[in-house]
Q: What sequence folds into this?
DNA sequence: TATGAATGAGAATTCATTCAT
DNA sequence: AATGAATGAATTCTCATTCAT
């Protein structure tokens, strides 16, 4: 008994659920292995094993290994943009928004998902032209978001920056600061518990930096 | 006619020069190829070709591909520490020193040797446990230098920081800012000519940031 | 139509057969090449070609070249122990058993499978620590079998040996005699047809030797 | 002041001595390394280092690595033939000669020079066609010597063997017995101290074996 | 759709031998 | 004669991707 097109039979729904479950399992396995062994060392066979599917199934869901990493990068970037954006917009005062979003990034993202930090800042770096292009696009978005926030700050506070370049510089600097703090405290050293404290200082540093580029 | 031990015949001197020349050629070739094609894509055969020596000769000089990259990293780190350190110490006022050294890094290093920036910030990232350890050590030194400068600043200016963590946070942030600025302007976008302008703003940002972590 | 777990579809059975066929083909190719060109000279590519599979397939079946040789050694040792053991046990009189098994080794094994003799006595010698350890274990088993036979002989005949070492010495000597006879007549010289005659004399030599170590 | 041809100046004599010393050093180094690391693993560079000469000097003295091993094999074979032959001829009674020479081989050669046993029975096996040919020639001589001794025994004792093949079979068996006893007790197990005891039993085994091939 | 055996290009590394000095 | 840097062919092994079932 065929259903009308567009709807799915119960069995079809189950298959659909299973299919998505498999896709999720593959992404999860890949994230775990990329973070623990490194992108190059984690073979497709290993990923398939970890996800409890066959290699073939991995290729049904993703057309290449690169694509898996690209997908993970997108997911991670989306989460970060969401956390940062939501926290920025929650409060009225944009200075407070910067503080809040920075601290949220550190304590609600970095501290909770260290593997994602490893993927973002270590395992996606310098892998291939395609992935590097993807990474560039991703960072461009993050910087654009930050720049937007800086512009908002400027407008709401009614000041001007030293030059047309300033807001981009600021946004880029902020991105770099968070990256290196996370890299040092999470990837190299195991000081995740100090991130609360650190993030407080980082946001103050940022606010001080931003203000020093104000005209007058 | 035997020379006294320790000195070399003219012919010996020439051979010695040739030997060193070959070593340099290999490093140069590796740097060029790592920067243009990426570490993984640049095969030892390719490097040997580019250096106009045989594969065997590469292995006489470096015991593995990893070692070549480690050597390049050391060289680059040494140059950066020298440029930054020299410029910091040239002037009396440590604020001025920070400005000067930051601008020097951007204009005398990044602008002139983009391949070194690529090696440092892209091609050495996440390659292997050994190289990652090397990279950590390298960054630790750079951060230690920066932290030293920040401490000097603090002492000469006679203030205190908010916490014992502050100077480390500041140094780490500075490292991250320069990294990402260089990455964006040199590796991803071709805006090397804007680095002069950008670096001025970055150093001001830094000074503002540092001051905002001062006690009181 | 799904089969119950544990059974295979006809197609699955065929695939299973093909898989095993490939494994056999690889072992056969390796045996042939190790015997004709030598273990070191026979490259994995060469083996794969001879077996009409790809190099990758060789590595699916055996994790290294060493493992292929180790496997061949095991197979050969198993066959020898079987032939020798079966023939020894077929007859009641242990003297007759020694004669029969020795002659069987020569005429039913050495004469028929000269490549196996080459692998066993030439190509597995001194290749690597791992293989040497494997070889030691293998020979220890063969000697233990022979020693068991000698002990049986002793007990059934109701005599004692000169010392506690005697049966081990005898077993070791027997192993060495067969080895060298096979090496000389099969590997170095092409006198396989004389092995019938030779083995008769060897077994008599052995019987005489054994008796000369009897007490009294 | 040129000396007449055929004589050497003092300096020339010294150079000659040094040259021979170097050759000896190379052979000694090669023996040590072949025995400890194996023929394939011992590189020419390693041998040169151990002999405290350059690679070039090794090649002045021996035209290839194979030749070094061939030379060592010759030396070892010569020593064995000398020890065995001298001991056989020392006594009148050929049975006693067999006993004496066998025991001498075990206690004066195997026990004292385990590296030579390793070279002879392990490291020279199955290396290359050339070396295998060399090895065959060497063993043929050893077997011929043994066969000569067996023939002497036969003639002095005034008996005949079962067949024309007998003396060759006996000689070959003897060679194999000593080989395997030495391999087991020296190379695989560290029971060099038991060789005294073992060799006594081996020679009795041999005598018993020889007699069992006597006609009637 | 799912499977996983098969593929084979590609990579790093070794080392006997040569030869200019 | 002695040196030892240079050579480069050869080898083992990996792994992303394909495709017949």
A:
């Amino acid at each position: 008994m065929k259903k009308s097109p567009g709807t799915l039979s119960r069995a079809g729904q189950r298959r659909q659920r299973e299919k998505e479950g498999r896709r999720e399992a593959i992404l999860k396995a890949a994230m775990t292995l990329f973070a623990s062994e490194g992108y190059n060392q984690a073979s497709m066979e290993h990923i398939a094993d970890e996800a409890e599917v066959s290699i073939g199934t991995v290729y049904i869901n993703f057309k290449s290994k690169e694509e898996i990493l690209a997908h993970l990068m997108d997911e991670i970037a989306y989460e970060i943009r969401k956390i940062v954006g939501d926290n920025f917009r929650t409060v009225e005062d944009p200075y407070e928004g910067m503080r809040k979003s920075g601290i949220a990034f550190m304590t609600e993202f970095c501290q909770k998902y260290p593997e994602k930090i490893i993927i973002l800042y270590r395992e996606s770096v310098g892998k291939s032209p395609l992935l590097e292009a993807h990474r560039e696009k991703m960072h461009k978005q993050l910087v654009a978001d930050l720049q937007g926030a800086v512009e908002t700050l400027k407008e709401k506070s009614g000041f001007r920056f030293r030059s047309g370049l300033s807001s981009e510089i600021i946004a880029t600097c902020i991105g770099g600061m968070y990256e290196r703090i996370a890299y040092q405290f999470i990837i190299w050293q195991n000081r995740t518990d100090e991130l609360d404290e650190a993030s407080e200082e980082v946001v103050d540093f940022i606010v001080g930096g931003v203000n020093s580029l104000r005209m007058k």
In short: Chains D and A do not touch (no CB pair under 8 Å). The domain at 65-213 of chain D is CATH 1.10.357.10 (Tetracycline Repressor; domain 2). Chain D has a mean pLDDT of 93.
